[in-house]
Amino acid sequence: MGGTDIRKIPFEQLNGQIAYVSQENYLFDRSIRDNIRMGNPNATDEEVEEAARQSGCDSFIRALDNGYVIPLQEVAEVIFPEEKNREFPLQEPC
Question: How confident is the model over 86-94, as a mean pLDDT?
């Protein structure tokens, strides 16, 4: 890892560098802001909006009638009409 034999890295330090990233993304029946905030429950509204800007979704979200407070399920039913269940995979990025 970075030129270092991982056998020489303490387990706790190595474990802190590992993250699980699922291939399945899920949207929950909460606001867009709440769905983004799931990545960091302590994020401020400004941090949530910055994350959306960095991912290229902010202008799309702001163009919605209720912006960041619209329940994501309402938006998703328009974008992904074939997805009807309460928690469902995200098919396309913003």
Answer: 44
Q: How confident is the model at residue 76 (pLDDT cuts 50, 70, 90)?
A: confident
In sequence order, what are the beta bridge partners of 31? Answer: 71
69 touches 37 (CB < 8 A) = no
* DSSP state string for the chain: -TTS-GGGS-HHHHHTT-----SS-EE-SSBHHHHHHTT-TT--HHHHHHHHHHTT-HHHHHTSTTGGGSBHHHHHHHH-TT--SSSEE--S--
- For the record, the structure tokens of 8 come out as 């020489």
pTM: 0.57
Bigger pLDDT: 15 or 21?
15
Residues 74/32, Cβ–Cβ less than 8 Å: no
